[in-house]
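Meet my pick.
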Amino acid sequence: MDIISQLQEQVNLIAHLAFNTIGTLQRDAPPNRLSPNYPEPPAHPTEEGTNFSEQPKLMSSTLVKAAKQFDALVAALPISESGEEAQLKRIRELQAENDAIGQELQKQLEAAEKELNQVQELFSQASDNCLNLKKPDDN
């Protein structure tokens, strides 16, 4: 997999982890009193034996690991040549190379078409010769 695809996958993973982390925190966070003027919020129903205090730590560490992996992938990207002029020069070089290869391919295509015509002509002659032969006598 190329580095750009890896970066895209890592961004998707980070978005997935962030979405799940925030959703889980919203779902499992205990209610909190907004002001002393408001009544005490109702108790948050929890399952017996479930320790929700560890869950945010685990989820945040997973999110941090994914972000560090993304940073490592970004650091592995090749450094581009400086400036637009250098890029334009490289594009011109690649275009010249492409034109030269295109001309060579065109020459090969013309040679192949010429050879195909010769083979078709020889096949036609051979077919004509076979059809013009007499059948052998059964006597």
About this structure: Residues 83-138 form one domain.
